[in-house]
Amino acid sequence: MVVARILATKGHAVVTALTTDTVLTIARKLTDHKIGAVVICQADNVIEGIVSERDVVRAISKDGPMALSRTAASVMTTNVKTCKAGDSEADLMVLMTTHRIRHLPVANNGKLVGMISIGDVVKHRIEAIEQESEHMKAYIATAG
Amino acid sequence: MVVARILATKGHAVVTALTTDTVLTIARKLTDHKIGAVVICQADNVIEGIVSERDVVRAISKDGPMALSRTAASVMTTNVKTCKAGDSEADLMVLMTTHRIRHLPVANNGKLVGMISIGDVVKHRIEAIEQESEHMKAYIATAG
Questions:
Q1: pLDDT for A123-132, tens place per residue?
Q2: E-assigned strands of A15-140?
Q3: From the CA of A24, how many Å to the nearest CA of chain B?
């Protein structure tokens, strides 16, 4: 239950935006919250899309300064890959590697209930390595 | 030698830019090469800074459309964290988690010789898990 464990630490709150928000508004949300992606959501938390730092940079590359006044709807990724509460650490890693993405909204019946970033997964892996090392030391101390 | 193994697969080439390049030029480099960061380098491969998608988004948040004509020198991170050929997978993960970064230029005597992204590290972990599983199956088949 790695997804549940990560969310227990970081919380279930996700920064969202509307399809009508501009790219500039999205850029400011990303910077203000120090995050890499916002989920585009309806009021009832149904996921409509996702806009990452990469989507913002891509829009700028294409349209220059004009991109900043475009809407989230025109730059968002609509085929959103999500994860679910029961996914394993390997499941998350495979999803992120296969689709070359760094953010997985956590969905429950199509509704947004959290967000897992690639940084969260790596942080969790490090903690697991440290814990295994502690268990190993404790076992050796006991066995000795 | 995880750094060497990753570079053997992805190659040693790194997309670089000059301190005088504009933010718009950097954005286009990131998009054209489908990467998340460029290293700002002198001609002799001495690392001067790094500009990531996050730096581009942050500059836009601050200055709006004007940001696109600013220079790389004015938006780059100059205190660049690097890794070296002998670093372990855990070393890379700790560096990335501690500093909340997703790109580690590989340095040899202060000169750029490759780039490791958080995606590369996760991909390597998945391959290691798959390999362990194969070894386990082979062992069980032999033991049985």
A1: 999 888 888 8
A2: 16-17, 37-41, 47-52, 103-108, 111-117
A3: 7
